[in-house]
Structures are given as C-alpha cells and as structure tokens.
Amino acid sequence: TTTINTTTSTTGNTTTTSNTTTTSSTTTTTTEETTQTVIDMANRQVVIPKNITKVVSNIPSGTMLLYTIDPDILGAWNYEFNDYEIEYIPEKYRDLPVIGQANKINKELLISLQPDFILAYNSLSSKEVDDANQLAHDTGIPVIMIDHSLDKVPDAYRFLKTILISKQSRCEELAQYAETALAFANSIDIPENERVKVYYGNGPDSLETVPEGSSHAALFELLDVYNVARDDDIKGETRYTVNPERIIAWMPDVVIVNGEPTEGVSPKQAVERFLSNENYQGIPAVQNNRVYAIPKYPFSWFDRPQSANRLIGIYWLADLLYDNLPDDMNIEQETKNFYKLFYHLDLTDEQVDYLLGK
C-alpha cells in the first residue's frame, strides 16, 4: 500500500494604506509538494521524494532488483565483481561506486552519494526492521523495506511501481514475468517418493549448504525437491557448514554447486573438485555424473543474492531434475530472453553455453 500526501500552499500578503487595501497572492513550493509518504511492506511510514533519480540498496538482493528495473537509477554496487561476473554487466555500469553491504556498509560513502532512498530488500523480521531504522537514523536517508521472499517477487515489483512513477510499465512487465515463472513452478507436483535427492554446496569445497526451511533453499521447496540437508540439528539454520562424512551419509542423487566468487572458484571448478574428491566416489550423484555447476553470472540462479535472479533458476532446475519445461520453451532461448529482459544484455550462443556448463 502506498499513500501519497500532496499539499499546495498559498500565502496571502495584505498591504493596507489609508484609502486602499491591496491583496497579492503568491504560490510557494512546500515539502509536501515534492515528497510522498509511503507505507512500506514492513508497515513503516517513510517520507521520500516524489521524483526518484537515484537509489541504492544496503544488500545485494535489493541492488539486483533495482538493476533489473533501470540501471540508470542505481547509485552503487555492494561488492566488486570478479572477472567472470563483470563480463555479464554492460560496460556502462561496471564502475559504479562500491558501498559494501549490511553491517559492513560504508556509511560515509553512502551519504556522499545522496540517494533518494535506500532499498532494504530482505526479510521483514524485527531485527531487519531495527537495522533499517538504525541505518536511516545514521545516514539521514529514508529506508524502504520490501519482502525478499521468492513468492513475493511480483509484489516487490508492483510495490516499486507505485514509487517509481516513470518506471511503472517496466515494473509491471517484470512482475508479470515473475508471476508466470512462479505459476509454472507451482504447477509441478512431484509425489514425495519420486522427489530427487539433491545436495547444494557453496564455497571453495562445497561444504556450506542450505538446510531445509532456509530462505536460501526456496527453489528446492518451490519445485518439490528433496533437500538432503534436513537433519534435526541443522534445521532452522540459514546456511550450515557440514563435513564430507555427512554428505556421504545423505547419498544425494544430484549435487549442484556454486563455487566461491570471493575466492575466484567458479562453479565449474567446484564441480571438478567435487567429482575428483576420493571421499565422494560412492555417492550416486558422482557415480552417475550428476554434479552440476549452478549458472551464476552476473548473479547466481539459485540464491546469491536472494532476488529476482532466482526466476530463471526455476526453469533451469525444473529442466535439470525433471526434464520439465513449458511446451514452447527451451532453456537456451529462455536464458537469452531472461538476460535481455532483466539484465539488459544480449547474450551470444557462446555465453549461453558457458552459463549452462556446456
């Protein structure tokens, strides 16, 4: 819900002489004429400018969402892209300032950029609300909170549609794509005894995983995937580092790995490390050569960040696990469509093949 307050102020100046009274009327611009009061998705009342020209986010998920709408209003990145990622960012936007993220954000740099507001695209937990309020207090810049849940991506775009007046059609276009992708995902109904057992590995050795119920595992839950990381002692964790013995005990049918961009380990390299690890030779996924690199440039298709990048991940994972795509779709062409629509990039066939690990 968005509420906009608009007020026009007219001041009457009266001058009196002995015989004549003259009244002149002048119009002045008030704060209310140039601002709008917004009720964000955390039910916080926030005053922001009406004319939005620059926005930053304190977290990569929000930065990515803004980038999909219009890179020209994006004021900063949260981290430096590595050599693999930068190739999938148009050259015009590669050198934006880097402000850091979350509790490591550079507040002085953020303030100097003078954005119209900060987008906090995250969970709406009480902790995140407190953090958003503190960031607004520390910087003097309004903070808008939007729910980053995968099933609420259409709502996120439509919320921003009410604020970014000049981008309404663009936001609606992206919201409709998201709705279509989510509707496809919800149409998949796999009986529990037929669900593929999958292990997700992150990091240079693929030992960090996302337990069942974690927001990072949203694609698994949406697509009826059996997430092997479901032991009682790790449930409730957002991410959890396991040892090789636990992965062996889980015996996954499929393994998908993300690598570690901060250490220059690509998903393809992570696949090679996993397949060559002597500890894993008895795992079905290794025996059947079903260890896959998660496409991730410039953003992972699975969970890093938790934003609209996961929409193309719906189609990729459904195709990978169940050979299931809408009748008129192939993953190569849909990759091109998605990157053109969301990332403002015309992919070559070679780039598509690289993304898909071919």
Describe the structure.
Helix 7 runs parallel beside helix 12 (310-322). This protein has helices spanning 31-34, 60-69, 83-86, 107-113, 126-139, 153-163, 168-187, 218-222, 244-250, 267-276, 284-287, 310-322, 331-343, 349-355, and strands at 9-16, 21-28, 35-39, 45-49, 55-57, 117-122, 143-147, 197-201, 208-209, 226-227, 240-241, 254-257, 291-293. The protein has two domains: 35-187, Nitrogenase molybdenum iron protein domain (Rossmann fold), CATH 3.40.50.1980; 192-356, Rossmann fold (3-Layer(aba) Sandwich). The radius of gyration is 24 Å and the shape is globular. It is built from 14 helices and 13 strands. Residues 1-29 have low confidence and may be disordered. It has a four-stranded parallel beta sheet with strand order 10-8-12-13. Strand 3 (35-39) and strand 4 (45-49) form a beta hairpin. With 358 residues, the protein is an alpha/beta fold.
Spatial strand order of the main sheet? 10-8-12-13
Give me the Rg, rounded: 24 Å
Query: In oligomeric terms, what are we looking at?
Result: single chain
The CATH architecture of the largest domain is: 3-Layer(aba) Sandwich
**Binned strand content:** 15-25%
CATH class descriptor name of the largest domain: Alpha Beta
Shape: globular
Give the proportion of residues in helices: 25-40%
Termini separation (Å)? 45 Å
Report on the biggest sheet: 4 strands, parallel
H/I helix tally = 14
